[in-house]
């Protein structure tokens, strides 16, 4: 099922007076231009707003998902989104806190622009009176000469102000320093806002609070050039309650591309959310109402062991990103691994994804005796240990208990012709692959 099927079922919570109040309750406003003016603006006639995504990787990640869902909430309130994928800013890259970005080739950036546009399109509606539009800042940046850029845009920026921006200041004080290219990034982003203001009447930009300096470069440029006041919202950088960085699993980012982070890995990431974090995650990453989230908060307080809130969170977000069908397969796989479903019913991709983090081994055909399999998989350290495991009733192959220590597993038992799921006891699993 396509994630687009969710668009028609999504809605903002009618218990709030307006979308601004809901954004505040969900913890999505860390910093902004004039709050009273913003609330009035968002409660009034439809406005056009934008958020930018740079193709510095072939996929968006969970940090970008915060922005996509914020954009969707504003669209559901009747406002008109512009999804900008930065074909030009992606060639430079916004400054990182620690070191210079590696510049990718123009061909790579162009390819990634296409990938990211496809991802952005899944989360917004491109139909109706407030249909979203996709824009690419390369369209107005590429035709501009360096002299025109300096004369028409650069003259409005003051170096003293630019070097006070947090990210620039931190890089200037580091051994790495900052290149002129990255230093100029805020000018490029400011020009984007000006161009979208002129073309579409865009009066609001959203982004992460760590981008605040870049967001305000646009509001200031429009004030100087056009004499108009426009707005910006900076969403908070989400961190875990224990201080660790959100959106990381085993040292890897949680990407929205299924090839880079499988639906199973995504589901497990959310399922492992700490009790202290799960309510805030539900507010930010789901369209559950205030009443529903308060009920789940009560469940965390009264019966945390059921992990009801985590299961709702995992289902909703994985379904948003990968669709309900993929999520249902993930849940079926999780159950099947521990004997609560049919392993044979899992397609190969789901099986491989679900077992990708398990200990694994490769064995030759003709060596499929239970003792050898238990040892090869690492579930037991020795033949004698394997015999003891079988004797005690703790040896399983594809969830079938093996009681004969001399048993040889027939090739017909191989899942998809080449896999065996080994289990010792109730929960200790390993995967064995048997090449053809």
Automatic annotation (TrEMBL):
The EC number(s) this enzyme carries: 6.1.1.1
Catalytic activity, reaction form: tRNA(Tyr) + L-tyrosine + ATP = L-tyrosyl-tRNA(Tyr) + AMP + diphosphate + H(+)
Alphabetical GO biological process terms: tyrosyl-tRNA aminoacylation
Amino-acid positions noted as binding L-tyrosine in the UniProt annotation, renumbered to this chain: 50, 185, 189
Record's keyword annotation contains NAD: no
GO terms, molecular function: ATP binding; protein homodimerization activity; RNA binding; tyrosine-tRNA ligase activity
Residues annotated to bind ATP: 248
Domain Tyrosine--tRNA ligase SYY-like C-terminal: 354-431
One Pfam family from the record: tRNA-synt_1b
Record motif 'KMSKS' region, residues: 245-249
Compartments, record wording: Cytoplasm
First-tier enzyme category under EC: ligase
Function recorded in the entry: Catalyzes the attachment of tyrosine to tRNA(Tyr) in a two-step reaction: tyrosine is first activated by ATP to form Tyr-AMP and then transferred to the acceptor end of tRNA(Tyr).
Subunit description: Homodimer.
Family: Belongs to the class-I aminoacyl-tRNA synthetase family. TyrS type 1 subfamily.
Record's protein name: Tyrosine--tRNA ligase
Classification of source organism: Bacteria, Bacillati, Actinomycetota, Actinomycetes, Micrococcales
Underlying gene: tyrS
